[in-house]
Sequence to fold (400 residues):
Amino acid sequence: MNARWRVRILALSTTVLLSTIIAFGAQRSGPRPVPDPAFGDGGVSAFYVWDREVPATPGTLLRQEPIPDHLALINAARGLRVLYTATNGIDGQTTVAVSGTIYFPKGAVPAGGWPVVAWAHGTTGVADVCAPSWMPRGTRDTDYLNAWLAQGYAVVASDYQGLGTPGGHPWMSVRPAGWSVLDNVRAAQTAFPELANSVVIVGQSQGAHAALSAAGLARNYAPGVRIRGVVVTGVPGPQYATTRRTNTFLFLVLYKFKALDPAFQPTDYLTEAGKRGFERLATSCPQPGDDGSWDASLKTMPDRAQAAPVEDYPTLRFDYPIFVGTGLADSAVLPVYQHGIVEAACRAGSNVETHYYPGESHGGAVSASLVDSVPFVKKVFEGLPVTGNCATTKPPPPTN
Fold:
């Protein structure tokens, strides 16, 4: 890593506390967003580009439109694509426009309003066209969200900062994702009184990181949001980087560094083949099975440890129950690393309910966990006690 980039990242980390305090108080309106193809911007409709200064108050709905047919969910009475304000997770001081979706369940609105599942999605890419509010969802996520709607819960789903909207998408960074999730909930609840102030945050993979980040930031950043619990599957731990030596992972890391500092030059670290793959990710969305090892793409790797302050969970001590589902055949985030997060949360005093799913992969644990996560969410929404299993949870069996 060159010295200038190390200084910039360290400077960013030392201002985290100060800028967070600023974000809770006197924020500034954000500049008019200007798309930049270098960050994967473009290819989406004009809806995603706010055409004026972004209002200074985070959690404000800017506009909405009916969800297109290819994004409709069968168990939703209606769906909306939304654009809202969130605190810029990079500078911590201004606001940015962020896109997302809201789905309302069928039936009569219950007394007190629809409970809210805040869905935090897994990795889709960095290009705007990879935003879940724009591109068709896969069958797994479609079925999963329909399952929550069938329970009578509204689904509020953020695309995260810079994904769909102009600007870099700082993949796997705490504040950009966590604040995006929380501000989407605030914007939805303010605009739609039929939504209850009763929220469970649900996330998978990158979304598990976003969900735990949002939960850790909520007490200080959005204390008015009543979080009842958190459900995560495929939860990344601090050793995540050591288990994902693929080109896509490498490119996502480099795009993250560029989002944190536009002066950073990813091409300094890539071979000619790597440069071509990196450029493709600015206009396309990675698909399972189309990736290879980064050995042919990487010339030298930036020191990701310097970016730890923007990636590490703000806390693993939560005031509400946490559900963790782990597929024992997960090769993307090894089960032992997921267990490490559980152990850390238990040591911090959190109430954690952990379940293992033999034979299930990183993605397979999402649907497999519903048999346990649906009763968990029903309990927390009803205010019933959840008996965690910190005292009895054992490390997962070794993988072959």
